[in-house]
Design a protein that fits this description.
37% helix; single chain; alpha/beta; globular
Length: 196
């Protein structure tokens, strides 16, 4: 990675929201968290792959979709991040929207990380397709494919952009950020033995 112009992943922002120290350990000390070895992650990826291969010709007309693209890799030159989007919906009103599949049950609210993921995807769509994005969707596979809509608000976009800036600052300068001390999170953290 180019230390002066790093490109981070969408997942890095979600890790940062869990605890800013993740970024320091991963990028500054080059200590991977080995997420790929976790059973739930592997199972989720496999099911996700199957879900995105089913009904590929189905268009969600009830929400105004005209067409869609699958598994789209996008990068932002402006904000220095990248990611693979499950689906991009192109809508009747000329706008677009990301659709993310979650192998989870819907519990009547969206997690903060899910919201941030959708916002980051919206930024990528706007920059790469030149389409306005003011809403997004999540499909909860384990809740009978329940579709949940979320508005994209400018205040939330600004907040996520500020987090990206903070992450890039940690990587470029080697700044050791404060931890988000939380007994439940810290107990389950893969870096608990080296975090001070």
């Amino acid at each position: 990675m180019d230390d002066k112009n790093p490109i981070i992943n969408i997942s890095d922002v979600l890790e940062y929201e869990f605890c800013p120290r993740f970024i320091y350990f991963i990028y500054c000390l080059d200590i991977p968290q080995h997420e790929e070895l976790r059973f739930k992650v592997l199972e989720g990826r496999e099911i996700h792959k199957k879900v995105t291969q089913v009904n590929r010709n189905y268009i969600r007309k009830k929400i105004g979709a005209q067409s869609r693209e699958f598994d789209v890799f996008l990068a932002s030159q402006k904000y220095h991040f990248k990611g693979i989007l499950d689906e991009i919906l192109f809508l009747n009103d000329g706008k677009a929207a990301p659709l993310e599949y979650k192998f989870a049950e819907y519990k009547d609210n969206l997690f903060r990380t899910t919201k941030s993921q959708l916002i980051l995807q919206s930024i990528l769509i706007e920059e790469n397709y030149g389409k306005k994005v003011d809403r997004s969707f999540v499909c909860y596979v384990r809740s009978n494919h329940k579709l949940v809509e979320m508005d994209i608000r400018q205040s939330d976009v600004d907040k996520v952009k500020a987090e990206i800036s903070d992450i890039l600052n940690i990587i470029r300068t080697g700044f050791y950020p404060k931890t988000k001390k939380n007994i439940n999170k810290c107990t389950d953290c893969c870096y608990r033995n080296i975090c001070t």
